[in-house]
Design brief:
Radius of gyration: 17 Å
Bound molecules: manganese (II) ion
Order of helices and strands: EHEHEHEEEHHHHEEEEE
Low-confidence stretches: none
Structural class: alpha/beta
Largest sheet: 6 strands, mixed
Distance between the termini: 15 Å
């Protein structure tokens, strides 16, 4: 199976042991044979800093390390949940951290990769908090707190974010079509892959008269969602099939 695999939005959490096992099986049964694995954000429900070496997060770090030690190139992008991934995480897992967005050459086709939340421009509140949380100052202040305090705050942010999501109309939570077109033009691509919205699909459309594709990765629950890409094209599959 010579394919490049893309996943996102697993929201791994130690209190979801079945999801943890599903992810571990995916790594050994599919990712181990891949040409490369790309994780486009929200691998974890929360990531409070690369110094978090509790066993519940360490198990995932070790599994990723095993994969990269097997020689599978591993690329990880921050999501809006795990935006504190930094060099320590890369060193521990052997992954390469990708900036959001990044252009890669996917079997000859320039492809823009991003988590996807930056495209949800209709969700003003999310964009405001995104700007704040990604600022150097906020990150430095947060990371200076003791680990226990950070874990506690992460729980608080999560329930706040759940409330916000519950109050939002469906359409606002999806990507803004104009933001998609603008970004594709800016990077000169006709293909993009992102996650975040939990609305897996391959959208084909015309961008300035040229055929274009926006591929949306799915989230993981009882089953996983994996994008397989090779010379022939891309296909969304469930794991296990
Ligand atoms: Mn997300």
């Amino acid at each position: 199976m010579a394919a490049t695999l893309f996943i996102s939005d697993l929201h791994l959490d130690a209190c979801l042991p079945e999801l943890s096992r599903l992810f571990e099986r995916f790594l050994t049964e599919q990712a181990a044979q891949a040409e490369a694995l790309y994780i486009l954000g929200d691998l974890f429900e929360a990531w409070v800093g690369d110094d978090d070496e509790r066993p519940e997060t360490g198990q995932f770090v070790r599994q990723l390390r095993r994969l990269s030690d097997q020689g599978v190139p591993l690329y990880v992008m921050q999501g809006n949940r795990d935006f504190l991934f930094a060099d320590g995480f890369a060193a521990r897992t052997g992954c390469q951290l990708l900036p959001d967005p990044s252009v890669i050459d996917l079997y000859g086709r320039p492809t823009l990769l991003l988590h996807g939340d930056s495209l949800c421009t209709d969700d003003i509140k999310h964009q405001e908090s995104r700007k704040l949380l990604r600022s150097r100052k906020w990150k430095d202040d947060f990371l200076a707190l003791p680990l226990d305090k950070r874990i506690e705050l992460a729980h608080e942010y999560r329930s706040m974010s759940r409330e916000h999501l519950r109050d939002q109309p469906e359409a606002i939570m999806d990507v803004n079509a104009q933001a998609v077109a603008e970004l594709m033009r800016k990077y000169g691509v006709t293909q993009m892959i992102h996650g975040h919205t939990h609305r897996p699909a391959i959208h084909s459309f015309k961008l300035d008269g040229v055929p274009a594709q926006r591929i949306v990765l799915g989230d993981w629950n009882e089953v996983g969602s994996v994008l397989f890409c090779d010379e022939k094209g891309c296909e969304l599959r469930q794991f296990p099939a």
